[in-house]
Amino acid sequence: MVFFDFLREAILQSGLFDIGNLGTILYVLLFVGSTFIFLFYGTRIQAMVIMGDVRKSLEKLQGLKEKSRKEAVDYLNNICKAPTNAQTRIDQALEYFTIMPVDLDPNGIVGKLEHVIRLQDDRVRNEIKAIAPQADKVQLSVAQNMIEVATSLNMIFKIVRHFYIMSQKTKSYFILAQLQMIMPIIVQEADALVSAIDAFKLAQPIGDGLGPMVAGKFMLGKEKIEVERETIYAKTEYKGRNLLVMKAEGPMGSVGRPHVGVEKLLQDPNNNITTLIMVDAALKLEGENTGEIAEGIGAAIGGIGVEKFRIEAASVAKGIPMYAVVVKQSLIDAISVMKKEIAEAADKVIAVVQRIIEEKTKEGDTILLVGVGNTLGVGQ
Amino acid sequence: MAQMFPSIGEKRPKMPVFTVEECPRCGTKTKRAFKNGDYVYREGGDCPKCQAKTLITQIFAELIKLQ
Ligand SMILES: [Zn+2]
After folding, report:
1. DSSP letter (8 states) at residue B49
2. Is B16 part of a structural domain of the chain?
3. Which whole-number Å values give the CA distances from B10 to A62, B13, B14, in the listed order?
4. Which residues neighbour A368 within 8 Å (Cβ) at sequence distance 6 or greater?
């Protein structure tokens, strides 16, 4: 008993269980404990946090997807006068997929790619015509654009959801971490797509319509000739030069087939074109100003490359120079209602085009000017 | 890299859309709210100065700052 008395005395004297020291002990325990918790469960905790993050973004994507679908259905029902039972058909159209041609043997891939894309385009268009036979040309093109937006958002949502569920099932931290890393960009892009709907609904020009706006001004009051489906050109003159100006036929929401038009006009021996000038909207880098004009060389046309390929090939075959004038804009600006800065850039671009014509060509030359882009809300 | 990730841009607030009508005779420009059916290079209303037919030359969204 003496021993225990001594021990008690010793402990009390040591002050180990004073209130102040108790704090120190708890602190040390917490520190050591948390080290072990994070050592063994760190990744799992992090995964839970990321999972929450990704789930929130996924819910947002779902909301955007549903909004775009509803807008497309409403437009077809209210504006295009589609019967109300057309919803199932619209939902089917949103699920259309396109199988891209195999590129194991790249020989001839551009032709195959173009064929597949044309088929896809025709299919969606015919489907919309069947759903809403009373719609006019502008309404049809708007509906097609809206269905395309809804299809893209539907696809984005499905792919993200796939990886989300897969990471849950496999408990793979790395799938989740990759998903979280690209999520902000995906959500921003989805937001951009949704913002395009407002412009489409009212058939207002979008930022991408800058090229057609420039070309349209040259074509005012001239006879328009159809060179290819939804693609027209007009003959005009500028300071002794013959000017052929081409754009998609407006004010429908279409980009036309400028590559086929360029090919046909270049190959026509009656034209004898010596210079090709293309005007387009270009996606800007962060830090660049919206509406900034830049000049360059090459085929100024976006898309997956089919159009660019054929324009380049036609131009090489004739050995003629290609000049490009672009107006910088962000993705959102390019597909939402045209901003004031971009609309005002159109006249400046016309001045640049005129200067290029004066400097790079001589009197009697024939120049082909192409305004590339979606011509929604822009006539000629 | 730059090719793959261009600027997506800032989310835009709801901006009012305007139509600019230009008189081909006297050059007067009138700015009014966008009306359904307007499109660039469509015939606009009469010029307020010389009563000639105007032409729609611009349609754009503009952020109006209220002071
Ligand atoms: Zn006037």
Report:
1. T
2. no
3. 21, 9, 12
4. A244, A246, A262, A265, A266, A271, A273, A275, A276, A277
Helix A137-170 and helix A109-131: axis angle, to 10°?
Answer: 110
Structural domain span for residue B40: 28-61
Q: Count of domains in chain B?
A: 1
Binned at pLDDT 50, 70 and 90, residue A16 comes out as low
In chain A, which residues have their Cβ closer than 8 Å to the Cβ of B65?
A: none
Distance, first Cα to last Cα, chain A: 109
Q: Which helix (H) or strand (E) holds B46?
A: strand B43-46
Best of A340, A348, A350, A375 to substitute, by most chain B Cβ atoms within 10 angstroms, is A340
In this prediction, residue A20 has a pLDDT band, given cuts at 50, 70 and 90, of: low
Minimal-distance CA residue of chain B relative to A290 = B9
Domains of chain A with CATH codes? 50-201 (no CATH), 207-371 (3.40.50.1470)
* pLDDT tens digits, one per residue of A125-139: 999 999 888 889 999
Which chain A residue shows the shortest CA-CA distance from B10?
A332
Q: Kindly determine whether residue A195 and residue B42, on different chains, have CB atoms separated by under 8 Å.
A: no
Give residue-wise pLDDT tens across range A26-37. Answer: 888 999 999 998
Per-residue pLDDT at A106 exceeds 90: no
Task: Read off the tokens for A270.
Answer: 């009656």
Residue B12 within any structural domain of the chain: no
**How far is A131 from A168, CA to CA, in rounded Å?**
40
